[in-house]
Amino acid sequence: MTAQHESAALAELTHTLLGSIEQLNLLCRRAVDMFGVSAAAVIRRAHDGEGPVVVTSSDAFDIQAPGQTAEPVDDDHDLVLTGGPVPADRRRLLAAYAAHAGAILARRALQDQAREAGELSRDNRARTALLSAVSHDLRTPLAGIKAAIGSLRSDEVDFGPEDRAELEDAIEHSADRLEALIGNLLDMSRLQVGALVAHPHPVDLGEIVPAVVSGSGVAERVSWSLGDGARYAHADPGLLDRVLGNLLENAARHQNGPDPVRITTSRLRGEVEVRVIDNGPGIPESERDRVFQPFQRHVDSGTDGVGLGLAVARGLTEAMGGRLVAEDTPGGGLTMVVILPGRGAP
To answer: Can you list the alpha helix ranges (DSSP code H) found in the chain?
Structure first.
């Protein structure tokens, strides 16, 4: 093969590879055609007691086949051809193919490093957000508990029954905030490491919804109703309780005016939809995916919170085989829709 033919072949190979996603595999297939062999592969050489490993190959490649031709790609890899010797006048072209393979592997390594660096950067930002938010959200209720207990223990003031009851309520409210925060942190940790296991079965929303409302601390600001055929769903009752509790807390925090937060259920095409509806400021459609990420809070909310409630709610819903989406409330506000597989009465 003349130098001119080699240059044309390499130019055509380069152009073809640039338009391919599976560049290394394509290079092996083109090597089979170019060198008249039966198969080609990029092999990672044996090291540290491990045998050679096929990185990618054309069809019908056998790493044990006799009569192999190996061309070094880099310090760890070879381009290996089987099914016949490579003519001497094409050895330089084979070296060029190996160089292309080396460039592809080097680019892959750089992409992997960039991806790892991006993941590390995201992890560092998440840790920073966690430390900042949790340090504030832990200190606030702890400070409230310490202040209330200090007042109750003081010998300088004689509190009446109403004042003592108010301080005790403050302690209980702060303790509830701590419990909710720690619960969300634990749930998020389990979700991220895949350690949370759901046990869905038919559940009665006529029991779960009023229990969630009753334990929310804002029961007087909530109304609920069950739609026809939408009383039973397939869910893990403990996880669903956490999901609805987080959604209700978020809705109550943003609700405007005297109207109550509403919880409704409906059935559509074999699925049950549980809606938690508020009439607050809402969230622009462009920001809705972001609010489901950990440590995110709506910039206009003006509220405290570590920003885990919605992330945990979506993660727990998906663990049960459901979905959690955000919609506009007609007339203004935000509606969170928990979509669960529908089941008949147990």
So the answer is: 3-18, 23-35, 91-153, 161-193, 205-214, 237-254, 309-319
Model pTM? 0.54
Mean pLDDT to the nearest integer, 239-259: 89
- Segments making up each domain of the chain, as ranges: 3-114, 126-193, 201-341
Please write the tens of the pLDDT for every residue from 173-217. 888 878 877 777 777 677 666 777 888 999 999 999 999 999 888
What CATH number matches the domain at 3-114, 3.30.450.40, 3.20.20.190, 2.60.40.1500, 3.30.70.120? 3.30.450.40
Tell me how far apart the alpha carbons of residues 111 and 144 are, in angstroms, rounded to a whole number.
49
CATH topology of domain 126-193: Helix Hairpins (1.10.287)
- Cα–chain-centroid distance for residue 268? 27
Q: Which residues touch 231 (CB under 8 Å, ≥6 apart)?
A: 204, 205, 206, 265, 345
Q: Which of 186, 240, 177, 184 is nearest to 209 (CA)?
A: 240
User: Is 80:101 a contact under the CB 8 Å cutoff?
Assistant: no
Tell me what pLDDT residue 301 has.
Answer: 43
Contacts of 281 (CB under 8 A, 6+ apart): 254, 256, 298, 300, 301, 332, 333
What is residue 47's DSSP assignment? B
pLDDT at 98 exceeding the cut of 60: yes
